Amino acid sequence: xxxxxLILLSxxxxxxxxxxxxxxxxxxxxxxxxxxxxHGIVILQEKxxxxxxxxxxxxxxxxxxxxxxxxxxxxxxxxxxxxQSMGVASLFMNLDQERDIAPVKLLQEAAVPAEKAVYVPVxxxxxxxxxxxxxxxxxxxxxxxxxxxxxxETTAFGTVNSGTLKFYVxxxxxxxxxxxxxxxxxxxxxxxxxxxxxxxxxxxxxxxEETGVRQSEESTFLxxxxxxxxxxxxxxxxxxxxxxMLLVAFSxxxxxxxLIVIRFRVVNTIEDQMVNMGVLGALGYTSRxxxxxxxxxxxxxxxxxxxxxxxxxxxxxxxxxxxxSSLSGLTWxxxxxxxxxxxxxxxxxxLVLGVTxxxxxxxSKLPPVIALRGGVHTHSFRRNAAPLDRGWGGLQLRLAxxxxxxxxxxxxxxxLIxxxxxxxxxxxxxIHYNVAVDKGALYDMFGSEMSDIVISAQEGADSASLFxxxxxxxGVVKANLLDVSPGFMDGLDLAxxxxxxxxxxxxxxxxxxxxxxxxxxxxxxxxxxxxxxxxIGETVELEAGGNSGSFLITGLTxxxxxxxxxxxxxxxxxxxxNPSYDIRSLHLYLDDPxxxxxxxxxxxxxxxxxxxxxxxxxELAEMQLSTYSSSISLLMTVVLxxxxxxxxLIVYLVIHSLILKRKRDLGIYKAIGYTTFQLMVQTALSxxxxxxxxxxxxxLLAAWVSNPLLSLLLYNVGVSSAAFDVPVIVVMVLCxxxxxxxxxxxxxxxxxxxxxxxxxxxxE
Amino acid sequence: MVKSLIxxxxxxxxxxxxxxQQHVLKNMDLDIYEGDFTxxxxxxxxxxxxxxxxxxGMDKPTLGEIRFAGREISKLSHDQLALFRRxxxxxxxxxxxxxxNMSVLxxxxxxxxxxxxxxxxxxxxAKELLKRVGLAEEAWGKFPSQLSGGEAQRAGIVxxxxxxxxxxxxxxxxxxxNSASSMAVLDILTEINAGGQSMVMVTHDLKSALxxxxxxxxxxxxxxxKLALGRYSAAAGxxxxxxxxxxxxxxxxxxGSTVTRTEDGTVAGDDSSRLERLNRFLAEMGW
Lengths: 764, 287
Ligand SMILES: Nc1ncnc2c1ncn2[C@@H]1O[C@H](COP(=O)(O)OP(=O)(O)OP(=O)(O)O)[C@@H](O)[C@H]1O
Ligand SMILES: [Mg+2]
Fold this sequence. Notes:
The structure holds two protein chains of two kinds.
Chain A: H1 2-34, E1 40-45, H2 51-59, E2 63-74, E3 78-81, E4 84-87, E5 89-94, E6 106-109, E7 117-121, H3 123-126, E8 134-139, E9 142-152, E10 164-169, H4 171-185, E11 186-194, H5 200-211, E12 225-227, H6 229-272, H7 274-283, H8 287-328, H9 338-359, H10 361-364, H11 368-372, H12 395-406, H13 408-437, H14 440-446, E13 453-457, H15 463-471, E14 476-489, E15 492-499, E16 512-513, E17 521-525, H16 526-532, E18 539-544, E19 547-557, E20 566-570, H17 571-577, E21 585-590, H18 596-607, E22 611-616, H19 617-661, H20 663-671, H21 676-713, H22 728-750, H23 758-763
Parallel strand pairs in A: 5-10, 7-9, 15-20, 17-19
Antiparallel strand pairs in A: 1-11, 1-12, 2-5, 2-11, 3-4, 3-8, 6-9, 7-10, 8-9, 13-21, 13-22, 14-15, 14-21, 16-19, 17-20, 18-19
Chain B: E1 4-17, E2 20-33, E3 37-42, H1 48-55, E4 63-68, E5 71-72, H2 78-88, E6 89-93, H3 104-112, H4 119-132, H5 137-140, H6 149-161, E7 167-171, H7 179-194, E8 198-202, H8 206-209, E9 214-219, E10 222-228, H9 234-247, H10 264-268, H11 274-285
The complex binds adenosine-5'-triphosphate and magnesium ion.
Magnesium ion (MG) binds at residues 48-49 of chain B.
């Protein structure tokens, strides 16, 4: 019956998971069309906006309608509830504005004063934002307080994953925002609807080319945003896809466990019924008939599980729809999916059939004579493993070792599964450790210089004298000039980091070669180097400030900024392209980082007219990281739970079948005076080596391949040579925890040995 | 002067099957004496095995008391009973029940090492015992499935003796063996008993019963007859073997209630009448 339960669970999960998978894409399209939402979005700072840009989109034949709207767009805002805050680009729009593309669809509303009210994407509800909660926005040292007045559904900027969150405020509040931050945040949003949404990325590309607007425009490329249809779909449905993937993965794990159980059962049945089979064989039954009855038996059990599994998935649908809706911020409507029903049930049944068939093959190889003797030849062991009269270890351990020898194949399977789940746990724990606990290694890979304070000089101010003054302030141990400037290389936009002295940087580093020293040298990211097909020792063409020149690659670095499209060059190098170029941003390092806020306040007072922006850089980085770290914590929690479940399930099933199989032996042991506890320990111990081996292999493997694997996974965000810290303690603790859990579960499962009685053995 | 090793008082065992109650042992008052080779007989289903396993702490009685060397064991928990068996009892089963994933020697040691931790000493003793029951050294390393029934049962007997139990319980130890193997096993048991080992054996078989020094006959859950036969001797055994066929039909007239225990030594020489007395007793019991 427990087997039928396993099959039921796996069909259920498989069905739900697959059902979501195939529906994700049509779901998003449906939502977009129903709400008349944009297929492509461009957000530009108001000062960069020109009517020709709108005209360009209007005249394009692929476009059906365009709308331009004034919005507040803050690339580096942070929003917070209570003491929690997260760094996320924020788009504030006027609720009272009429619009044709993506009109506001409110789901829930509470009475809140108009000047305080903010409407948030419904996905935030899932993150704990309740109606009436305070929501704080802080942007460039300005703070605004709002109250959550309602939720809305949106296909763009509706989840944290998109990096930008959309909010609506009422007219009075919008006026206030405009008054206070219009010059930095005032932006124009162009929304486009198209004949074929899939062409939106091409449209945006040609828009950039034709209008000359680039994402890396100005030094503030954080204040532009290009969103095509694919990316919109991806970020909105990402959590759904991950959820579906987890379900499918989990269902496969359960299927595998079920198949292992089936194999055990078949083999046990053959052993138990050996004599019966011999009798049947002697009577003239063919081995095929005997086999067929066995296979039929397991197929019936599986069908009993698979059928209700599919049905149950429909019972679970409302709850799942709710969850998916809150994950994507869009209402998920589930429906009848007969094909998926059939596919998931048939896949599971076919696997059961295959395994039963394979496991019952030995019946064919069993002549009746041998079967009648109870399959004597199956016990013809060569060697008496772990003899009791010599060798090390106590009696219990030696007896356990005998069992290991007898179940070698089973032990190998257990070890492999343990290795798999331990690997997954250790791998996610390593990521979690680096993202949430000790961020040093991650900051290095970020490719941002992490100083305590970053100051941008006011336009028109004499930056050189300002910076000399600041660098000489008390408490400042080091100052670095570092700025980012747009560039163009081999047809690609890139961000060029310009500094006087790269060797004094704390976090910017090369993983190969050296930093640029001379005016003809450049360092590329690994990703950029792959893009242009050039590496250390070769020269590349760089276009910046209206000129172009060729530079020698002296090293490779990595960064998560700008999708990894970054180059580093010296100020003198930049001067060869743009003689009037001036670094307008300064990094300050303090001897006492805890005083950073006080220092910022002092600087603001003393140099107010010369400073455009002053930031607590670590705080900013922490805020940006916090969005990742919370999803990584979630991922780790899920992986750890799945690991525990798998460990518990596997150990339970294996011990359970071991007890059934060894019932006779256990009876004999009890008869000659072994206590239940001794037999429990013996049984648990017999599985322990496989568990320990699996955990150790999985742990070592994870520690060893984490960085290469992460380089592969993170390549797209710009990391080509990952160097995460691998905390040995964490790895060891996790392995120990897996082993400990497995041992405890095996002991607990072994408690059913209590029910085995010596007496039953004798009277049966 | 003869010490009682096990004493039962109002021993009852009831099985319930589908709401119906079956009283297998009824208010049984019984003594098992030290040094005796007690044989339990009775028709199939009369409760012989049930009694044996109640006496040996393998199973708990429904009601009543069992004192083993003065200690009340009927109220012990299952684990306490396991420890009790380990310390005081040895078992020989009809189906032998060796552990088939280990060698003969290890089968013996799995029992022997439970009590004594000294590997070497226990292994030495095991080897000595194996030799004594006639198992050659080549057989020690074999697995149970590679042994003949008789060989396996000898190993089973050694396992029962390895920890020097106060008493050995045997439930039809020769039930699955051919007559030659049976005789060998019976000889071993007799010899062990002659060395002073207390033993209780359940049997169906006249030849086996003849080895006993005291016969208990069970019917309907009560002991309806007891016969003191005295110690068996090898010489008399051969004679009995011949006479067995002739005397099989000769009826006896021993009254169940009058058969009482006689002093051990006094009947020992009275071998010529062992078979006759047993036959008479069994006829009386309606065997
Ligand atoms: N565990 C049990 N559950 C229910 N009934 C039982 C159980 N054990 C024994 N019995 C019943 O008790 C009665 C006596 O059984 P027992 O095994 O003691 O007989 P026996 O004298 O040993 O017979 P045999 O000579 O056939 O071995 C039988 O009727 C049997 O069905
Ligand atoms: Mg019996």
